[in-house]
Amino acid sequence: MKKILTLFSLLLFHYSAIAQSFNYGSITQEDINFDKNKIDSNANAVVLKEFGTARLQIDDATGSLVLMFDYHVKIKIFNKDGFEQANVIIPTYKDDIKQEFVQEIKATTYNYINGNLQESLMDKKAIFTENRSKYNSLTKFTLPNIKEGSIIEYSYHIQSPLIFNFRQWEFQSNIPKVISEYVAFIPGNYNYNVLLRGFYKLSDQKSEINKECLRINGVNIDCSKMTYIMKNVPAFIEEDYMTAASNFKSAMYFELSDVQMLNGSKQNITKEWKNVDNELVSERRLGSQMKRKDLFKDLMPTILTNTTDDLSKAKAVYNYIRKQIKWNNYYGKFSEESVKTALDTRSGNVADINLSLIAALSAANLDAEAVILSTRDNGTVNKLYPVISEFNYLVAKVNIGDKSYLLDATEPLITFGLLPLRCINDQGRVINLKKPSYWIDLKAAQRSVTSYMLTGKLTADGKIRGLLTTTTSGYAAFNKRREIKKYNSIDEYVEKLDESLPKLSIKKHEISKIDSVDLALIESYEVEFAVHDGTNKEQLFLNPFFINRISKNPFNLNERTYPVDLGASSDERIIINITLPEKYTLQDKPKDMAMALPQAGGRYLLQSSVTDNVLSLSQILQFNKAIYTSEEYLYLKEFYSKIIQNQKTDLVLKSTN
């Protein structure tokens, strides 16, 4: 849920008038005795108080405008699971021109022992910096002397040249908060779009005006102080099947819209897509690389050998690029160097590879476009106005007849027209060299399909021997192929698979069509597993859910305020046929089930029987939607719960002889 608060023409006042944070080191008896039942009985730790403030000011050293951010927090730790709150990580941005600096770090642990409050001040030597990537650094430190019942407190200051995205503020984190307060001081000539994301509303919001907060080139600028408060904030608990947590956490976001210049003119920062289109088409690292079809003209006769139509041409070009250039595991919407460099070095980032694909498709006289997007772990993008910094990935789009195909040539094991799940995230923006850009839905082109078939025989020594055939297609095949390729050989993969199946032994194997990614992947295994030790042949106990058994419910919250996003719909089928050596009757079994999710969202079917001395079991698990709303969450939770409970029941076979 997103709530736009207002489009401010904001003003700011001098930092001497800034709202006061709580005093550092002021630990009260109320803090020491705080009862977590007041906010969350399951909490491992609780934020007692959190305060942050941000303001713009002139940097004396450079004379440029910078963003100053101060943060102060006090946390109560209840048990060992809460100790992780003492490990603090502060991310900062850097590039060849701009860099954020973390300064004035102060951290203290308080323990109340025998009626006395003992302070442990963190040594500055405990602070270190880690370069996470070319553009990100992590400042890390761990508070000392942590015990159950400790209170920790720390504060720091960040100086940042990044004033476009005024410092965001997350009210929600992985632990609950008693009170979280953020104060933004924004010069009156700076106009920011302010956005509250998330499920929870503000407890309080204030706006105050003051005069002459900032002085630029001898001109005094009036200012406004914006205060945002949220109280009794629940913890944000991450579960399986979700996109970036930033999409759903309650948080304040600021994006610079325009600046009123001192000479009276207005500089628009937030642009329209028509302006951004022109910039991207002429951008050396994007539009210019899309035009490099000259690099492929001489190669086309060879690449297009044996192609008969546009679709086969597109597939041939796609296969050529994904084999020619190896992905260096870096994302990007812009080429790092150029398409030519990527071809020469046979290596490149996401944009290098897919811009090469677009240029090559164009050289084959196919209609190709670029699609910029934000990956699932990067969050969704703003649709109201273009914010290019929110996009972190680029794929190709080829239009053939009345159909279009989205392509990512970074993954050599994925079939034509299927994007990696990391790209299936809301919408992307299509960039055309000659036409206006437009939005496109990023949906899975295929579902994840898996089928298991076991045909076997129960022998006199109490073992079932048979053939297990697994067939996968769509995302299931892609994931399985990628898993197999991690190993040096198929034999090594099968050896590890055998080790992971303690009740089942693989005797022989055959895996076909590993590299034929447009076809289903087929795995055949001769397997053996014991049902009894020969001492009691009159009664056999067999749990039939030894193939991909569901043992854990992925949904355990009482309420989930964000959707369940599987990425793609799925279909899994299991068929087991086991010939029994003597006449057996079915004495007990998991009950046959036929369950359906509301609005044809999915189904689970289970049937088992013994007929003509053959034990048969059939199981179907389908999810017909890629995304389920938070309102459908409890249905999914109950759906899984019933399946898990039923799969605990054994088949009991009794001999009639």
Automatic annotation (TrEMBL):
Q: Keyword Signal, does the record have it?
A: yes
- What is the native source organism of this protein? Pedobacter polaris
Cite the Transglutaminase-like domain residue spans from the record.
302-380
Q: Which first-to-last residue range defines the signal peptide? A: 1-19
- The protein's superkingdom reads Bacteria
Protein name, as recorded: DUF3857 domain-containing protein
**Which Pfam families does the record cross-reference, listed alphabetically?**
Transglut_core (PF01841)
Q: Which UniProt keywords apply?
A: Signal
Q: Does the keyword Thylakoid apply?
A: no
